[in-house]
Here is the input.
Amino acid sequence: MALFDVVFPYNLSPLTYKGNEGLMPGMLVNAEIKKTIKTGIILRESLKKPEGRIKDIESSVGDAPIFTDGMLKLISWMSDYYLVTEGIVLKEMWGATDFKGLIEPLSREIKKKYYKTFLIHAPERHTEMSILKNLISLHRNIIILSPEIAYVKHISKAIRDIAGERLCSIHSGITKAMRQKAIGRLLRGESDIVIGIRSAIFAPLGEVSVIVVVKEESPSYKKEDGLRYHTRDVAIMRGYFEGASVVLSSTCPSVESLYNAGIGKYTLIKPPSVLKKPSVKVIDMRTSQKTSPYISKGLFDRTLLNIKENNKTAFLINRKGYSVLICEDCGYIETCKDCQIPLVFYKSDKTLRCHYCGFKKTAGGACTRCNGSKLRMVGAGIEKIEEDVRDILKTEPLRLQAGRRKSVPIISEGQMIVGTRLIARMPELKGRLSLIGVLNGDSYLQAPDFRAVERAFQELIHLTENLTSDGHLIIQTRMPHNPLFKYIKNYDFEKFLKDELSIRRTLRYPPFSKMALITSDKPSEISDFKSRILNLESSLEVLGPVKAHHKKGRYVWKMLIKAIGREDLRKGLRAIGASNKGVTIDIDPISF
Here is the structure.
């Protein structure tokens, strides 16, 4: 009999069991936990005999490993890196694999395997897709990761003629039965290409040859609850452990990835651009003539011409609702009782809503503070802009925002679209618009985030991809001299990267530091954490704690820890010992 460490999909470290000599790491087995038989994975042969009675492995499921050695190393790495038990990691993978009743030996091996990460900075989306199609035609056992389900469907449609039955999808938009069918096809070797969002990185694909991360810069790859892993980083480590190539692709890569390419960690591939780029114009809303408070005459005139020529136009406004109501008698703006942020008026159903926690109430005709009846609407959301388009452009717009997404045929019928930032993330709009007007360009720069300029640059670049080659992007702003708009006008990736890296180097932000965000619902607890860290002899820098609103209508306290190196950060986090229920640790945070 041999000893094996078995990990189960619960918040537990591996447990040691006795098993026969035919068992091996990676196999699915049944064993007893608290008088109940549970299914787990053999992580490794045990190197140390524990004290007390050692239970037996009851049975194995299948006669061969369903986790490769690289996947087992990935479990251990994620556990160590994200400071969670191996069981939490397996639980995350469990939802992606759904092994029960579908286990069969993995049958495919690839003779030549090596780890290397490539960063493809594609000039256009069609270049990115062409490279992907070539990879599929030349290689087998491929994982394709996409940031959103909409892109999964878009890519699947584009590659289906090449991939055929080799392709299967794993994501939250399919049923459990469909997921089981996909996993069964992978395990039986009937499919060797899997496409999906975050959880697809855990797909039980043996002998992976290539992992492709499409739109690698997308913040959607970061899981924001539970085990807060970044899919791109996990993909790179799975490639490393499995000896597979990793291909990161984007038309506007992340600063961190471009930096890694610059220092030789990744191999940069930058195909030349063959298409004319749309023009970009910036309008100073402080001095320009206006047709309405929120639409400049320059944008209005260009839109009229577009409509006359039967071309398609989109106005982008980064605000939902109609406006905010202010009392002219006392100056009061009604706020959310929990979040203390202004409630937004929705004219469509006469409600006031909190965009943070979701609170909603019927809008009254009087001020709730002084009972005054003079309520004035301030600012403009998508409902107000939709109304302005009807009034001044004499056309009925199609509204696109989260929860109201339309299919391609409906979009194709309209000449005018009014939408939120969703417009930039719709692959079905690629190259179909002649004009996009960004009505409140300053909103991109107002986020309290060191990546605000990077995300603004990426999103505006992605907007240009939805334009025809002779199309126009018009950005309205009260800060026309901000360097961001010059980068965009000139499509100047190099200057953007150089300036952004210079700022981050000075302020010690990634990629020049490692960070962790600590969140607690107890202010005394997080203050104690800070004291422990400051007592360490290290290079750790602590920002905060600060009081912040939680989306569930309560307050939390947040503290950001920065370190020059990974080991210093880990030392600080282990000194905290933050294992209480109300504490979360986010390694490499992207939201603050």
Observations:
- Residues 149-163 form the longest helix (15 residues).
- Residues 224 and 591 are 8 Å apart (CA to CA).
- Confidence is low (pLDDT under 50) at residues 99-111.
- The chain has 15 helices and 29 strands.
